Amino acid sequence: MDKNSKIVILTGAGISAESGIDTFRSEGGLWEQHKVEDVATPEGFARDPDLVLGFYDMRREALAKVEPNAAHRALAQLIAGHSGKVLLVTQNVDDLHERAGAKNVLHMHGELKSALCQACEMRSAWEGPALLSRPPCPVCKAPMLRPDVVWFGEMPYEMERIYAAIRSADLFVSIGTSGAVYPAAGFVRDAKDCGAATLELNLEASDGSAWFDESRLGKASELVPQWVDEILRS
Ligand code: OAD
User: Fold this and answer.
1) Beta partners for 114?
2) CA 201 to CA 179: how far, in whole Å?
3) What pLDDT is recorded for position 28?
4) Is 188 left (phi over 0), alpha (psi -120 to 50) or beta?
5) How confident is the model at residue 37, as a pLDDT?
6) What's the order of all strands across the beta sheet hosting 110-117?
7) Per-residue pLDDT band at 2 (split at 50, 70, 90)
8) What would the pLDDT profile of 22-34 be if each residue is shown by its tens digit?
9) Which of 11, 66, 150, 200 is the most buried (most CB within 10 A)?
C-alpha cells in the first residue's frame, strides 16, 4: 500500500466492544439476551411495537454512557491523514466513529440516533424523546416513528455507493465483525474478485476468515492503531 491507495473499511460490533457496547453473537451478547425475531424483524415490530421501541430506546440511552476507544480514534486519524480515498462502512448503529472524529461514515444498518417515519418515510436525526412515547414525526407530524435501524429482511442502506467503492479499492479491511450477516459478509469476496488486497482485524477468526489474504487476531484497540500507523507511514 502507498499513500494514494484506495481503502474500504468495514466495521462491526467488535470495534465498539471495548467501549462497553455488547456485541451480538458473543457469549451473553445481545442475541442471547433478546430474540432476533422479536426485536430485529418487521414481523416482530408488527407483533409487539412497544417491545421493539423500548429495546432501541434503551440502546440509544446506553450510548450516552460510552466513549469511543483507540480503534475508533485511529480510523478517524486515517481518514483525516491518508491521501488516497478511504470509505468507512459500518454495520454498527452507534455513533462512536463520528464521536471519534470520523467524517462521512456509511451506516449500512442504520443509526440509533435517527428515526424513520412510517407515514412519510423521512429519516430524521433523533436524540429523544423515547420513541416508545410515540412522539410526532418532525416532518409530517404523524406519531409513527420507528427506529431507523435495518432489520432482517430489509435492504441495507447505501449499497450502490459501497459496491462502487469496493470495485475500485486497493485494500479492503474488515474490523470486529463475525462475518455472519450478508450482504456485509460477502464484501471480502467482492473485493477480492475486483483485485483488492484483503485484511481482517478481529478478536478471533471470523466465518469468512479463509477469504482474507491476512488475518490479524487480537483486540481492535491494539490492532487498529498499529495498522493505521503502518498505512500512514507507508
Ligand atoms: P457480531 O457480534 O456477530 O461479531 C462481533 C465480532 O467482533 C466477533 O467476531 C468477535 O470475535 C469480535 N470482537 C469482539 N470483541 C472484539 C474486540 N475487542 N476487538 C476486535 N474484535 C472483537 O457482530 P457483527 O459482526 O457486527 O445487524 O454483527 C453483524 C450484524 O448482525 C449487526 O450489524 C446486526 C447483527 O444482527 C442487524 O441488527 C441488522
Assistant:
1) 125
2) 12
3) 87
4) alpha
5) 95
6) 123-125, 110-117, 145-149
7) confident
8) 999 988 899 989 9
9) 11
Q: Do residues 158 and 90 lie in contact, with contact meaning Cβ atoms separated by under 8 Å?
A: no
Question: Which cell numbers in the block locate residue 201?
Answer: 482485524
Q: What is the dihedral of CA 116, 154, 79, 208, to 10 degrees?
A: 150
Cell numbers representing residue 102 in the block = 470520523
Ligand 1 contacts (CB < 6 A) are 12-14, 17-18, 23-26, 29, 40, 91, 109, 150, 176-178, 180-181, 202-204, 206, 219-220
Task: Give distance in angstroms: CA of 205 to centre of ligand 1.
Answer: 12
Give the active site residues.
109
What is the pLDDT averaged over residues 125-142? 96
Please indicate, yes or no, whether the overall pTM of this predicted structure exceeds 0.70. Answer: yes
Q: Which ligand 1 atom sits closest to the C-alpha of 154?
A: 39
User: Which ranges in 67-158 belong to alpha helices (H)?
Assistant: 70-81, 96-99
* CA 23 to ligand 1 centroid distance, Å: 5
Place of cell 442502506: 157
Do 86 and 228 meet the contact criterion of CB atoms below 8 Å apart? Answer: no
